[in-house]
Amino acid sequence: MANFSKSNVPQFSVEVYQNEYLPEGGREVNGIITVTSTGGGTTGGVPLTSATPSPSHVPGRAPSAAVVIMVDCSGSMDYPPTKMRNARDATAAAIDTLRDGTSFAVVGGTHVAKEVYPGNGRLATADRQTRAQAKEALRRLGAGGGTAIGTWLRLADRLLGAAEVSIRHGILLTDGRNEHEAPEDLRAALDACAGRFTCDARGVGTDWEVKEVTAIASALLGTADIVADPAGLAADFTQMMENAMGKEVADVALRLWTPVGVEIKFVKQVAPTVAELTDRRTEAGPRAGDYPTGSWGDESRDYHVCVQVPEAGIGQEMLAARVSLILPDPSGGAPQTLSQGLVRAVWTDDMVASTSINPQVAHYTGQAELAQVIQQGLDARKSGDFDGATAKLGRAVQLASASGNEDTAKLLSKVVDVVDAATGTVRLKAKVAEADEMTLETRSTKTVRVKK
User: Which of 25, 28, 37, 257 would give a disulfide with 10, using CB separation of 3.0 to 4.6 Å?
Assistant: First the structure.
């Protein structure tokens, strides 16, 4: 049996990659912050299997996680009928992946949100009996009605909010556009749920809106993806639930402290996906702000911090920023600092030192541009600006090739004919399968790490 002592809680480390040298008059300082969490996960390092004991079964330890699965049950899920059947099977597979002791519920989503299991505003506790009951309830799930995703999220929030757990997570599946509530209603629901639970979002088929699904995942610090063929839902749901079961620490914040006179230009996650965090800052004392990172298991992520420092003379140096990982105290006490790193600035007249670009900074600057030009290129293509689309998608091919992002390069090759990847010379394909275009758009923010 796994030992779930305190040593099984992940240990965090912070590494800073940067070129700290600035020329005379230089003011912009960039740093790539690699955050690694090891030795945690709800299995305490034991491989994920249905037989793995849950931390919730350790004496004196509360259930660690609560999960709500939101399944689209709108009328379009009946076209073709296999779509609804695949969604039921996928939800059942996800329920089978729940660790014993995990709190869970299933919500059916149409123009209203309905509790499918267990009902009465409660969460069930996963064991052999409740899994069987939940799967029986799924059999009665049918398609009919509209789509109002904000109502699904608000119900999930109410259910999850009642759970005495550290990890709160949602899984949301939709096959259509959010047509039965105003965009501002969905935005308000996301604002209300942000910071309360994380959520992975999936679009099945090709009749849903990529920007809606990716906005849900972005706001709730989860993943977004397309499952073009409904037959792939069960494998995808199983993987999502395994990832959710692997989280051990929630609400970790990246805290950035800067000295007087230093201006923060941006903070963004750059691996495994690009996610803008700059506008999500919450103040955390004098000259300090927290940026949300969500829940962690055994994993590593990279963040790009860019600050502007005051001018200084040759030979001077300063601390440009201090980056800390912060874990709040649920009882309201002082937060715990898990790890920290320093971003420095040193002014030099050595031109070689001050003009060399740190490889990590250069790489992720390119990956962020890659995500941006794919979005711009696809938007231009949709609006009929084929010259603009060719230029942007050509640049995307060039960046993907140079950085070794083979997955994105393959997706691009389904939208453009590549004449010369190194120069970004491409031709738009006359016909593009809708699923291929949506896959490229949905996965455009996925990055590769720096080649060692």
Answer: 37
The span from the CA of 228 to the CA of 244, in Å, is 22
Q: Which of 14, 38, 22 is nearest to 248 (CA)?
A: 38
| CA–CA gap between residue 390 and residue 401 (Å, rounded) | 16
As beta bridge partners, residue 396 has: none
pTM: 0.91
DSSP code for 434:
H
Question: What are φ and ψ of residue 182, in 5° steps?
Answer: -70, 150
DSSP state of 44: T
Torsion of Cα atoms, 42 then 46 then 48 then 51, to 10°: -100
Total length of the chain: 452
Measured from the Cβ of residue 435, the count of other Cβ atoms closer than 10 Å reads 15
Q: Could you identify the residue written with the tokens 């990659």?
A: 17
**Terminal Cα distance for the chain, rounded:** 37
Here the tokens at position 379 are: 């938007």
- Torsion sign across C-alpha atoms 311, 312, 315, 318: negative
Q: How far apart are CA 346 and CA 339, in angstroms?
A: 24
Place of tokens 């309360």: 196
Q: Using one digit for the tens of pLDDT, what is the confidence trace for 238-285?
A: 999 999 999 999 999 999 999 999 999 999 999 999 999 999 999 999
Contact 192, 157 (CB under 8 A): yes
Position 105: which residue type?
Answer: A
230 vs 417: CA distance, rounded Å: 28
Residues 215-227 pLDDT 10s: 999 999 999 999 9
CB 197 within 8 A of CB 158: no
Return d(Cα 340, Cα 46) in angstroms, integer. Answer: 28
